[in-house]
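ugh ok fine here u go
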Amino acid sequence: MTRQRWRLLGVVAVVLVAVVAAALGRSSGGDGAAVEAVGSTPTEVSAATSPETATSPETATSATATTSVLATTRTTLAVGLDLVALSRLPDEAAETWQLIVEGGPFPYDRDGVTFENRERILPRRDRGFYREYTVVTPGEDDRGARRLVVGDDDTVFYTDDHYASFVQVDVER
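structure:
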């Protein structure tokens, strides 16, 4: 992809993220948390508070740094997915996350295999970027439908319907 196309994609991503950030600010009581686009450009791009100031990835980053409305807490979101605290998911999701942090051992042979993102719900990345792990479902005889999917950039996603939908997971909460 040419540099000009990457720059155009970056501008589009910044404007889109600015709109999402503005909407989140209104719906969450205006706490001003910044939202960052993931997977839209070769580098992560911070959104300014208004589309008018977001004319390129470079100006968006500097505009974000100088915008007084932004809180110190930053939330990284895959565009279009809800962010959910790990503590709000089933207890088994936290148990699986702990196993991932510790490096195993995992209860299923398929834990840690490449997640291919065939559904194209998660941001598109090169093959091998995502790994999937089973979240045990009590009462199931097999692996069930629940999974944590972890990206090489430490983004974490959860599905409870075998990849039909995802939420992004904030593992710090």
